Amino acid sequence: MKELQDIVRAFEQARLANKQAALATVVHVEGSSYRRSGARMLVTEDGQLTGAISGGCLEGDTLRKARLVIMQQQPMLVTYDTTDDDDAKLGVGLGCNGIIHVLIEPINTADDYHPIKLFQLFLNKREPVVLITIFNIVNRHAPQHGTCMLIEQQGVAYGFIPVKDLESDIKTTADQLLAGNETSSKSYLTDGEYQCFVELLQPALSLVIVGAGNDAIPLMQIAKVLGWQITIADGRANYISTERFPLADRLLVARPNEVVDQLSVDKRTVFMLMTHNYNYDSALLADLLSLDVPYIGVLGPKKRLVRMLDEISAELSENIPTQLHGPAGLDIGSENAEEIALAIVAEIQSVINKRDGLSLKRKVFVHMRESDNITA
Q1: Spatial contact of 7 and 24, defined as CB atoms under 8 Å apart
Q2: Using an 8 Å Cβ cutoff, are 268 and 247 in contact?
Q3: Per-residue pLDDT, 366
Q4: What 3-state DSSP class applies to 31?
Q5: What residue spans of the chain are helical by DSSP H?
Q6: In 3D, which of 125, 121, 120, 126 has the Cα closest to residue 269?
Q7: How much is the pLDDT for 216?
Q8: In b/e form, how buried is each residue of 276-310, taking b as 16+ CB within 10 angstroms?
Q9: What SS3 state is found at 368?
């Protein structure tokens, strides 16, 4: 999400400066790589890069090829084979032991639904969409159709599918992805020659920080780095100000029973209660528990949360809802406000992505390899 936001912003700046640009997308990975399918980078004609398709290893070579794509106005599929012992001789030197296929496509503003336009359509709404990218690994000299369609939940589509044999399967797959409960998902379809990368995109997380104390400031700052939408809510008007919370998308002064009614809550909305006012947090918590949201964090000791739940319902205090997290945050030894904010953001990220928050060294594989399989 943050990457797409940055790419759209950089493209608008380039367009105003009359600079041409190309989009590089990792469309398929075999084996290991730093970034997975769906990683993107915008390249302008003067060499400015926004986003990333690797840890810095592919960017230089991709920049050179992107300039050629911009000049010729023809998409190009590039393959980086890091399983080859001669890879270091080529100056790439990834050392990832994988094969990475990168599609580079020029951005033609005369096209009504060029890739950046599709990104803008997605970012302007708070709903999941499916993005379609079509490429050809079998015949690299064949037309590389690139990012060609966006499909919304209601079935509304923008763009077109140039490979007619894939249309029916694309619609079926898109419907399945949009009807599912996954935070992100990727599928591949093929007609034997062309491959279709079908990608579910979810809107940015909306974080509602309830409490405008000083400890809310680093939480806002860290969450904003990730591209989350931030709302600060508190009953104390003198605490709510743009000077204190310049990165917040919305400032809300409200009593606890007024907060929910003034928000647009969806399945990508999360809450963090940190007013340090027991009565305020308790009253609002009673309203939040009826919402279908993935995460509600509560600052403070466990016994404080249990007391709140017991006052709401004795049954709740004995069977704490799974979306409720208190004390909030992962156990990373946090002491000060910045460390606590980091622990909270990390826990929210792990919950949203359905991960356990454990050290990666305990895992055999970092990424699920099955997601990048191309099958007929």
Answers
A1: no
A2: no
A3: 65
A4: strand
A5: 2-16, 59-72, 115-123, 167-179, 216-225, 278-288, 302-312, 314-318, 337-352
A6: 126
A7: 98
A8: ebeebbbbbbbebbeeebbbbbbbbeeebbeebbe
A9: coil
pLDDT confidence of residue 89: 42
Q: 329-349: buried (b, 16+ CB within 10 Å) or exposed (e) per residue?
A: bbeeebeebeebbbbbbbbbb
Enumerate the β-bridge partners of residue 43. Answer: 22, 49
* Cβ-contact 186, 37 below 8 angstroms: yes
110, β-bridge pairs: none
Between CA 295 and CA 185 the distance in angstroms is: 20
Structure tokens at 2: 């943050």
Residue 355 tokens, joined:
């991960």
**Residue from 230, 306, 237 nearest 269 by CA:** 230
* pLDDT at site 90: 45
- The pLDDT assigned to 16 comes to 96
The β-bridge relationship of strands 98-106 and 76-81 is: antiparallel
Q: How many CB atoms sit inside 10 A of residue 89's CB? A: 9
Q: What is the pLDDT of residue 376?
A: 41
- The pLDDT assigned to 360 comes to 84
Could you tell me which of 281, 234, 293 has the C-alpha nearest to residue 262?
A: 234
The predicted-structure confidence for 21-56, as pLDDT tens digits, reads as follows 999 999 998 877 778 899 999 999 999 999 998 888
With a cut of 70, which residues of the chain have pLDDT below it? 84-97, 181, 365-376
Query: What residues does 190 pair with on adjacent strands?
Result: 195
> In this structure, which amino acid lies at residue 368?
M
